[in-house]
Write a structure and sequence with these properties.
This protein is of the alpha/beta class. The chain contains five helices and five strands; from the N terminus they run E-H-H-E-E-H-E-H-E-H. Strands 3-2-1-4-5 form a five-stranded parallel beta sheet, sandwiched between helices.
Length: 123
């Protein structure tokens, strides 16, 4: 484990987008792009230390491009399973998973990740 690695912030795109009833269901990819741009501009509110942000998208939101500051990971199947894989692949590196999904919070918590709700990135 690299002690110098920044906190890995894994954002559940579908869950965070779905937390605000702003019509996202009419354009899931566009909603994911707006979230990506918000994350790229604002980072993780309240944190001044460096972070690496990974936005996990699935379904109709697949195909969103990465931008400086946010890597977009298009889950081939289940977004939840992909986020668990990312925590596992981090190999003990500090991780924060942003989601309100109780089952996902339990799964990544068992792997040692911290969890936070969608408001933590919405500002």
């Amino acid at each position: 484990m690299d002690e110098e690695a920044p906190l890995l912030v894994i954002v559940d795109g579908a869950n965070v987008v779905g937390s605000v009833p702003d019509g996202w269901w009419r354009d899931r990819k566009g909603a994911a792009e707006r979230l990506r741009d918000h994350l790229a501009t604002n980072g993780l509110p309240g944190r001044t230390d460096p972070v690496e942000i990974v936005l996990v998208v699935e379904g109709a939101a697949r195909g969103v491009d990465s931008v400086p500051g946010v890597r977009v990971d298009s889950a081939p199947h289940s977004g939840d399973d992909r986020m668990v894989e990312l925590v596992t692949e981090a190999g003990g590196r500090p991780c924060l998973v942003v989601t309100a999904d109780r089952e996902l919070r339990r799964r990544v918590g068992e792997l040692g990740a911290e969890v936070a709700g969608p408001r933590s990135v919405r500002g």
